Amino acid sequence: MGISERKEKEKQIRRNDIIDAAEKVFFSKGYDVATMDDVAKKAEFSKRTVYVYFNSKEQLYFEIMVRGYKILIEMMEAVLAERKNMNAIDRIELMSKTLYQFNIEYPNYFDAIMCYENGEKDFINGIPDNSREECYALGEKIFGYLAAALADGVEEGVIRGDIEIIDTAIILWSCTIGLFNMLIKKRNYIEHYHKRNSEKLLLEGLDMLMITIKNLNWGKENEKEK
Q: Is residue 196 a contact partner of residue 204, using CB atoms and an 8 Å limit?
């Protein structure tokens, strides 16, 4: 390994160390309370060194979301690869359930992404284009799975043929995020005050969303063909 390659490797190690430290600080103290001083202390670097690699707390937040999105995409691709022959409706439901499983296994990444989805952090100044664009690209990749499933569903006949694919994907994604946000953040209230199981309500909510896009004549048409 040459000198330049070694320096680049050391630079990447320091960069990852700082992101690791930021995760620990943001996840334990909360993003709004945490400071770059906290991150530098946790990483055992000077604040000046941290700023050599990241120009703001916001940039670190986006880097953490990139990690979360990559894990979520890996989970989705794995479950979809296992069940290639399912119809589009089942694929969409599986994607939603995978998102829920992601919340169970990686709650801190899930919260980071949900805060982003429900906020305006993408409009904050001071985030380099490469950090922001990588985060956007990964989010759009997940959105692309949903849009592709809708298009396949229309072609298969299991989804209504009168929908506009992108509009419907945006609405479904927004409704799903809202459902997750409510049922997860208000879980204790729902389960103790209303005596309802949040996970069961989530599945029921997803079923209701699927009814709005299903081609309700699909089963009848299949019966006629038989």
A: no
**First vs last Cα of the chain: how many Å apart?**
67
Are the CB atoms for 214 and 149 separated by under 8 Å? no
What is the pTM assigned to this prediction? Answer: 0.85
Dump pLDDT digits (tens) for 176-195: 888 888 888 788 899 999 99
Q: CB within 8 A of 58, min separation 6: which ones?
A: 121, 124, 126, 127
CA distance 91 to 77: 11
* Domains located in the chain, CATH noted: 1-54 (1.10.10.60), 57-217 (1.10.357.10)
CA atoms of 139 and 24, how far apart (whole Å): 23
Q: What is the pLDDT of residues 198-214, one digit of tens each?
A: 888 888 998 899 999 99
Contacts (Cβ under 8 Å, ≥6 apart) of 5: none
Cα separation, 201 vs 152, in Å, equals: 27
Query: CA nearest 183: which of 171, 200, 170, 160?
Result: 200
Q: Over range 139-157, report the average pLDDT.
A: 94
Closest CA to 168 of 210, 110, 117: 210
Report residue 151 CA to chain centroid gap: 21
